[in-house]
């Protein structure tokens, strides 16, 4: 019996191999098991596991995740072939289980297939929130939120501060205010319950949102309901949907738009929700509640965690090498001085700070595999044939940490970016992805990250809570979190309280 099974296995593997060669598919690990394919090779975190497979089989590898083909690319050239030459072919997203419910039946901006509807959503996101013009209009929100964080930190005394929480709350307040005109975290704010609800939504969303839901690849498990995952996802969807609905209802009844500047600036500072609801007046068919809810959700979720985690990684890396912190501060002191706080117009002049941010996003890309793409038709990558309907994972983590492209890749060294301002070095570095499906929020993210880090460095002396280095191991999740939340201590500099009282 055992022998027969082993024989069958050997025959299966060899037959698979031959077929593979004949069809000129990309290389695959030898042992393709029946039913599960290569799932037995995958460990968490997925990006590390895939890097290992690519080291053995080359930068263009075809894996079988159960019933689905997955193309993994891990070199700049291969990434360019997928995201530039075959940009449109790969502009689709796979229909993964989590996205069916959470993505409103694959109609949300991030999960919608390439086409008219998706193009429309990108346009509305830009018009309502992310264009340079809109970002400028909404800049006072970002400035005032960063200042309240500075004030909060100034009061922390000698206590250690949970910077993961601080960055998350900052980003959530900023995104919530730009989108719905509300803020959640404040001393004595009355809405702690709502804030807690939303934080739970975010945590759960990232837990089920990844590419590693086994039911996506072994459909029979799903049919047998073994995972119970679908119920969990449906429940989460319901929670998210209700939350968003309450924001819309509040906004309709005028409760949500209570920010004082609103009337002073003659309604110019409309929130996203107001933009969407006013668009609805001309096109009620298109801007149904569902479209509005789905767009707000995507932008809230996409913006909050990614930016907050990047700030946490950056701060952690700098605390481990205080000379970097010192150099960034010297630049800020020279460009901005001690008489006023850093603001967004200073950012283009703070080039070392930008190098620090770039180096952070190189070593710790918060979406280490981008978001999965899917091919709409057969195409050619690295000289191999890639069939229609193949899922694409671009291993950004592997590319950006590869010593072949980055000398001394394992060392955090912002200086490697000096003199590179405005230079795009092929596809060696693309923390925001590239091509049609690239991140529409890059501009907003860079402003928030630059402004926040710049302000923290300008106003405080920073220290680790002990002599031990901060542990830079990554945890698991859709966005790459630090396994251990960053705790740090800060002391206001001599001029800080003056600056904060003016601001
Ligand atoms: C440090 C911060 C951020 C990083 C590193 C980041 C990175 C990315 C990456 C890698 C993708 C996927 C690209 C692809 O699939 O090829 C993406 C997609 C996306 N990002 Fe960001 N992002 C950040 C912040 C933001 C912000 C602030 C927003 C908006 C509020 C945003 C909105 C989106 C959306 C809507 C998509 C989906 C686009 C689509 O499918 O068409 N992101 N982002
Ligand atoms: C999802 O969309 C498909 C086709 O696009 C449609 O047949 C189906 O009824 C939709 N399901 C839900 C729950 O809206
Ligand atoms: C930043 O500060 C400078 C100097 O005070 C000022 O000229 C500029 O308008 C400010 N920019 C923003 C966006 O507040
Ligand atoms: C940071 O990286 C981006 C993308 O590679 C590049 O366009 C930019 O010029 C870099 N900035 C600096 C200051 O190195």
Provide a compact summary of the structure.
The protein has 503 residues and is an alpha+beta fold. The chain has helices at residues 2-22, 46-57, 76-85, 97-102, 116-130, 132-137, 139-154, 163-180, 192-208, 219-223, 229-252, 261-264, 272-282, 289-320, 322-335, 351-363, 396-400, 442-459, 496-502; strands at 60-65, 68-73, 161-162, 373-374, 379-381, 384-386, 391-394, 460-464, 487-492. The chain has a single domain, classed as Orthogonal Bundle (Cytochrome p450), CATH 1.10.630.
Outline, from the CA principal axes?
globular
Reported for the largest beta sheet, the result is: 4 strands, mixed
- Residues in helices, as a percent range: 40-55%
Quickly count the helices.
19
- Radius of gyration, rounded? 24 Å
Given as residue ranges, the uncertain stretches (5+ residues, pLDDT < 50) are 256-267
The molecules bound to the chains, other than polymers, are: protoporphyrin IX containing FE, 2-acetamido-2-deoxy-beta-D-glucopyranose
Main location: membrane
Keywords: Heme, Iron, Membrane, Metal-binding, Monooxygenase, Oxidoreductase, Signal
Cofactor: heme
Subcellular location: Membrane
How does this structure look, described?
The chain is an alpha+beta fold and 503 residues long. It has one domain: Cytochrome p450 (Orthogonal Bundle), CATH 1.10.630. The chain is built from 19 helices and nine strands. It has helices at residues 2-22, 46-57, 76-85, 97-102, 116-130, 132-137, 139-154, 163-180, 192-208, 219-223, 229-252, 261-264, 272-282, 289-320, 322-335, 351-363, 396-400, 442-459, 496-502, and strands at residues 60-65, 68-73, 161-162, 373-374, 379-381, 384-386, 391-394, 460-464, 487-492. Helix 9 (192-208) packs antiparallel against helix 11 (229-252). The N and C termini lie far apart (78 Å). The site of one 2-acetamido-2-deoxy-beta-D-glucopyranose (NAG) has 11 residues, from helix 16. One 2-acetamido-2-deoxy-beta-D-glucopyranose binds next to loops.
């Amino acid at each position: 019996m055992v022998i027969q099974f082993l024989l069958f296995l050997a025959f299966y593997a060899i037959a698979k191999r031959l077929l593979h060669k004949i069809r000129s598919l990309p290389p695959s690990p030898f042992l393709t098991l029946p039913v599960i394919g290569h799932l037995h090779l995958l460990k968490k975190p997925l990006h590390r596991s895939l890097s290992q497979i690519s080291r053995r089989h080359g930068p263009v590898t075809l894996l079988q995740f159960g019933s689905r083909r997955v193309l993994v690319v891990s070199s700049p050239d291969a990434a360019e072939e997928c995201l530039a030459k075959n940009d449109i072919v790969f502009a689709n997203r796979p229909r993964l289980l989590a996205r069916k419910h959470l993505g409103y039946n694959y109609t949300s901006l991030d999960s919608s297939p390439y086409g008219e509807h998706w193009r429309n959503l990108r346009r509305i996101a830009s018009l309502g929130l992310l264009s340079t013009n809109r970002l400028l209009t909404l800049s006072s929100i970002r400035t005032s939120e960063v200042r309240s964080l500075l004030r909060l930190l100034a009061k922390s005394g000698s206590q250690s501060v949970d910077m993961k929480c601080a960055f998350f709350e900052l980003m959530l307040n900023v995104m919530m205010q730009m989108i719905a005109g509300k803020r959640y975290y404040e001393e004595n704010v009355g809405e702690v319950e709502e804030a807690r609800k939303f934080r739970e939504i975010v945590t759960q969303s990232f837990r089920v949102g990844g590419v590693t839901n086994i039911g996506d690849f072994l459909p029979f498990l799903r049919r047998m309901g073994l995972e119970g995952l679908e119920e969990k996802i449906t429940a989460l969807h319901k929670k998210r949907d209700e939350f968003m609905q309450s924001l819309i209802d509040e906004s309709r009844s005028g409760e949500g738009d209570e920010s004082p500047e609103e009337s002073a600036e003659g309604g110019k500072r409309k929130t996203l929700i107001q933009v969407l609801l006013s668009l609805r007046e001309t096109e009620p068919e298109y801007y149904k509640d569902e479209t509005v809810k789905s767009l707000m959700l995507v932008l809230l979720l996409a913006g909050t965690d990614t930016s907050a985690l990047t700030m946490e990684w950056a701060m952690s890396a700098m605390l481990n090498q205080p000379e970097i912190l010192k150099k960034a501060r010297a630049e800020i002191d020279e460009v901005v001085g001690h008489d006023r706080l850093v603001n967004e117009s200073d950012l283009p002049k703070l080039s070392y700070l930008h190098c620090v941010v770039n180096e952070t996003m190189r070593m710790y890309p918060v979406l280490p595999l981008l978001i999965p793409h899917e091919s709409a038709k057969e195409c050619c990558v690295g000289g191999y044939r890639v069939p229609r309907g193949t899922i694409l994972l671009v291993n950004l983590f592997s590319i950006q940490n590869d010593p072949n492209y980055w000398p001394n890749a394992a060392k955090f060294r912002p200086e490697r970016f000096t003199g590179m301002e405005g230079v795009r070095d092929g596809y060696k570095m693309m923390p925001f992805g590239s091509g049609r499906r690239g991140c529409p929020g890059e501009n907003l993210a860079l402003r928030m990250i630059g402004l926040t880090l710049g302000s923290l460095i300008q106003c405080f002396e920073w220290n680790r809570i002990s002599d031990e280095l901060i542990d830079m191991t990554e945890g698991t999740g859709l966005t790459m979190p630090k396994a251990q939340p960053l705790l740090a201590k800060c002391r206001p500099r001599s001029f800080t309280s003056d600056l904060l009282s003016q601001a």
